[in-house]
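Support case: pyridoxal-5'-phosphate complex. Customer-provided input:
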Amino acid sequence: MSNLPPKIDDLGERTRLVHAGRDPSQQHGFVNTPIYRGSTVLFPTTDDLLNRRGRFTYGTHGTPTTQSLEAAWTQVAGAAGTVLAPSGLAAVTLALMAFLKAGDHLLMTDSVYRPTRIFCEGMLKKFGVETTYYDPLIGAGIADLLRPNTSVVFTEAPGSQSFEMQDIPAIAEVAHGHGAVVIMDNTWATPLFFPPHDRGVDVAIEAGTKYLSGGSDLLLGMVSANERCFATLRKTYDALAMCPGPEDVFLGLRGLRTMALRLREHERQALDMAKWLGDRPEVAQVLHPALETDPGYAIWKRDFKGSSGLFSVVLKPCSDKALAAMLDGLALFGMGFSWGGFESLVVPFDCATYRTATQWRPGGHGLRFHIGLEDLDDLKRDLDAGFARLRDADG
Ligand SMILES: *Cc1c(COP(=O)(O)O)cnc(C)c1O
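Agent response - structure generated as follows:
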């Protein structure tokens, strides 16, 4: 399957998103790769069957639909190859299992997505892998934590919920000098805003559930890898048969075509809202690395090409009751996990209950916002009324 229109080099990002992983000439002229469902793949001869000859050999190993998204994501991420997974968390666990074995040591950012942490503390520990959490701001100081058996350094930028910005190139340089593999959860920026493999990341994870979908209507993960790591990743994928469902892959391909547009709009809306929230008397601090006032701004500016729709604020001290009065009465903001869809969301959070290498003491409740595609004035009115309820509740 060709992945690009012929005879055109140096395509821009948006053109690539439209064409990648698509070959209408193979689909009777229809624009999109259809949903292939299936387990059995028939071989024409005994010889072909015994030697597993052919691009497709069995449903768990891939279909034209999954190959289409793998090829497209490989281009978008600037990788050597991609495997898919049935969720973002499955993509994380697949990447970790590919590069760790019993007796290994893992360095994990303290700001990581919490379910990743739970996997380290449960499954990885059970299989004999030791995890050390590190300060996300450690940069080249990661050198002090590397041990002879450290095989993976796991990063995520910005940090989950609290949005610490990591110096990925500095961490990667030190880790590579040690022979360790650098894995990054790149879900927030996507490769459009942070090209992971150009910045020293060997293996990059994306929860396709978020901006690839854009609709809160599917679960999907992508793991892309550079030349050094792809063969090992693919082998682990085949061993685990961690294949996503065909409808979700199809919807992921559909989302890919409009992802750049949606992401730019989420970025614009979120920056506007972050500044508006920063001016509110009820807000103590805005945690958004693309704001000049943020401690992570310099690194964001150097390494990232954009920011997405997700950020947090810390409120000035208020009672739990006042916070509930604010949130329970919101008409447009939904409360629920995940993000990346067209709708705005808010969730309260408290990192203090689970972080171990750093201390989280912001002095007020944390709120994480995802800014959707609604009219900003409507969203602001919804929050304005919420802040009024918050103030009233505390008298
Ligand atoms: C949502 C998310 C995941 C997990 O994705 P699911 O598809 O919900 O399993 C992983 N990492 C980050 C940073 C996320 O935000």
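The mean pLDDT is 96.

Case will auto-close in a few days if no follow-up is received.
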